[in-house]
Predict the structure of ORC1-type DNA replication protein.
Amino acid sequence: MLDDEGESSVFVNRDLVEPDTIIDEERIVGRDDQLESVVSFLKPTLQGNRPPNMLLYGPAGTGKSLIIGAVTQQIIELCKSKGERFGVVDINCQPINTLDQAVYELVQTVAKDVDVDIGVPETGVSTKRKYRRLYELINEYYDSVIFILDEIDLLVGRRANEEPAYSKLLYQLSRASNTNEIEGRVSVAALTNDPKFMEDIDGRAESSFNPRDIYFPDYDANQLREILENRRDAFRQDALEDDVIPLVAAFAAQSHGDARKAIDLFRGAGDLADERGDEIVTEDHVRESQEEIDKDRSLKLVEGLTTQKKISLYATAAVVCYSKQTGSSVPSPVGFKVYQWVTDELDTDQMTRETYVKYVKELSTYGLISTSRKSRGRGGGMYMEFTFTGDPEAVMNRIVDDTRLEGIVEQKNLLQTVVNAQLNEFHKQ
Ligand SMILES: Nc1ncnc2c1ncn2[C@@H]1O[C@H](COP(=O)(O)OP(=O)(O)OP(=O)(O)O)[C@@H](O)[C@H]1O
């Protein structure tokens, strides 16, 4: 039974501190330049012209989805008042593995928006047919359209020596109006955390996509503070101790100035106060909540991964834990070699290097790993470098709890030898 105390909450509008809530423009902080750029690029839509394609790039939680979402929402409204149909087709590429799935997802998103039948099955028909259905729906229901492709760099989905799926998709969509497959005006906005994303794009796709760039830098502690201040009304008046907002902002500023993390921690501290029946959110709630988030994030996440992702992560963590060299970064070619060795030992499927890199990169969106792109010097090509933000040994231990990976623990010495041999090999080249 709930007593009076149990019913009271520090929140009066908890939605405001939910990560997916679409906030009003006046709550947006420190993104004036980006807002201005997106508005100016999309303005031609209102005058019946085609806007340019765009690339919004910057670290996680820096407002890319927020800004493009807020501006396109306004354009939908303005177009509606003029009797024009502006379609916003927004997908997140992170869970999508192939080009075919991406096109299906686009069809599904449009069909849902205009409330009609999808009209193509998910499997058993060609990707071409799915494209045809996509264009058919767009031509019937929209006068102009923008495709928003979030986390575009994670749409790899290719076999060895093939062009990556993101490259093909960008090529197709950005030329669909030139080829008259789409009759109205089309533009494509790609969102990514990878500042060097365009370097991996096929030349054909690069020239047809040819985007205007908009950069989203990290927030500093002051901006994070302001973002939180603007959502203070999620809480009951006087429910926040004075130091709560500065402390939440300071924690989030340490983790790359990610506004999503700041908001999650703000909400977490409030939830903890509620759980304990405390009337006021204090610094202690913030600190404890941060500890829980740190612990939970990596370990819960690891538990929920597929076996292939666990193996990829295990092999990457093993490079850090077993390396005799100092430094805690893992060059992706070394991580991949170790991954191959582990899959051989376990006698399980082996993915391509692209897929291995995609899996590990995905973990960076959860803050478990950070990635950067490195050059091997003149003519040596590029590779990714992975750095663990938390403790790689805890990650390995958690993965071993999965019975399918137990066998590998007995091979610890061998694994150590493989790691160091691969590192030596890599640094010799
Ligand atoms: N400038 C801002 N003002 C207010 N809230 C913000 C701001 N920037 C981000 N947020 C909030 O932080 C959260 C994350 O923002 P958003 O999803 O736009 O980030 P992103 O850059 O698209 O991240 P990712 O690369 O992880 O997709 C959202 O809840 C958003 O409302």
User: Anything to note?
Assistant: The beta strands are 54-57, 86-92, 144-150, 185-192, 212-215, 329-331, 369-375, 382-388. The first helix runs from residue 4 to 7. The pocket of adenosine-5'-triphosphate is lined by residues 19, 23, 27-31, 60-66, 150, 193, 216, 227, 259-260, 263, 365 (CB under 6 Å). Residues 195 and 424 are 29 Å apart (CA to CA).
